[in-house]
Structures are given as C-alpha cells and as structure tokens.
Amino acid sequence: FHVKMKKIASIIVLFLIIISNAMAVEEVEYEIIKTNEVYEIRKYSDHLVIETITSNENSGFRKLFNYISGENKTNEEIKMTVPVTQLKKNGNMIMQFYLPSKFNKENTPHPFNSDIKISNMKAGYYAVIRYSGRNSENNFIKYKNILEKELKNNNISILGSAIKASYNGPFTLPMFRRNEAMYQIDIKTAI
C-alpha cells in the first residue's frame, strides 16, 4: 500500500511539473549587467504594463486577468506574461501585468474598467534577488530585507520602493516557484 501511494504521489508531482512548464509565457527581457552570490543587476528597457490599485492580491489579479481575457474595448485576448509585479506607488499597492512585446501605445486595447491603467515602465537598472517557495508577504519581506541590506553594504543607491515579482501560476509546487524581490537602483553607484 505504501509503495502504491508513493507511485501515485510521484505521478502527481510529475504531472504538476509538466503542466507548470507547459504553460510557458513570454518573459520581460532584460540584460544581466553584474552578478554576485546574493543578487544580480539587470537592465530593463521601456515596457508597457497594465496596472490597478489593489486592496488584496486576488482583487487586483482578477481585474487585470479579466482585461487580458478580452474585457477590453477591442475584445482582444492577450497572452499572459511574466512576471506579475506588485509595488507601492503614491501610498497605494499596485499590481501590474506586463504586456507582450508586440504591444505599443497605439495598438494596446483600452480597458473597459476605469480601475485599470495602461502605463509605461521606464527603462532602468534593478537589483534582483531570486527565491523559491510560497510568494507570501513574509517571504517577500525576508528577501527584500536581505537585498536592501546587501545594497547598502555595497553603497548602491536605491531609487524606489521594493517590487515583488511572481513568475508562476498557483498550481506550481512551491519548491519550483520563481519569485523575486527587486529595487530600482542608481547604476552609477553599482559599477
């Protein structure tokens, strides 16, 4: 009985791994500028996002997901991209979906929902620490603090609030999840 349960559990784990890898999506491109044992510094280009103020993760995610599912003025379904990010802006918690690279200001469908804004993420340099496990607030705070401490120890100037980045869907096992904590930095202090 024990051996049979182990086989079933192994098949389920394998299935979940295959499913999570089969749901490949476009990832926002970046260039790695510098790496050390704790974090890496990346250069991102300008990129369009859709964003909404959120009181909790589920409400923000649902609004943005509905938009990419066709609830926009052209009824266009838009492929999911990664990461999904959360950050504080003007005292509010903001959730963002990056739009696929084929979109620009002219061809991006306008949202029906007035809570959703199309915004341009300006090009910049970011220090990033990667971690697996649940993307809980406690995990994020733990890694954000590690990153912030390392940046301060290296005299690298932080230019904004911490960004929480999630790369996997809810069915990905925690040990296989890719999460990141990021800070925009002044590259002149990092080189």
Defining key terms:
globular; single chain; alpha+beta; 3 helices; 9-stranded antiparallel sheet
Short précis:
By secondary structure, the protein is an alpha+beta fold. 26% of the residues lie in helices and 31% in strands.
Give your account of this protein's structure:
- There is one protein chain.
- The chain has 191 residues and is of the alpha+beta class.
- It is 26% helix and 31% strand.
- The chain is built from 3 helices and 11 strands, in the order αββββαβββββαββ.
- The chain has helices at 2-22, 57-68, 137-153; strands at residues 26-27, 30-35, 40-44, 47-53, 81-82, 84-89, 92-98, 117-121, 124-131, 163-166, 179-185.
- The strands form 2 sheets. It has a 9-stranded antiparallel β-sheet with strand order 2-3-9-11-10-6-7-4-8, with helices on one face. A two-stranded parallel sheet has the order 1-5.
- A hairpin with a 2-residue loop joins strand 6 (84-89) and strand 7 (92-98).
- The longest helix has 21 residues, at 2-22.
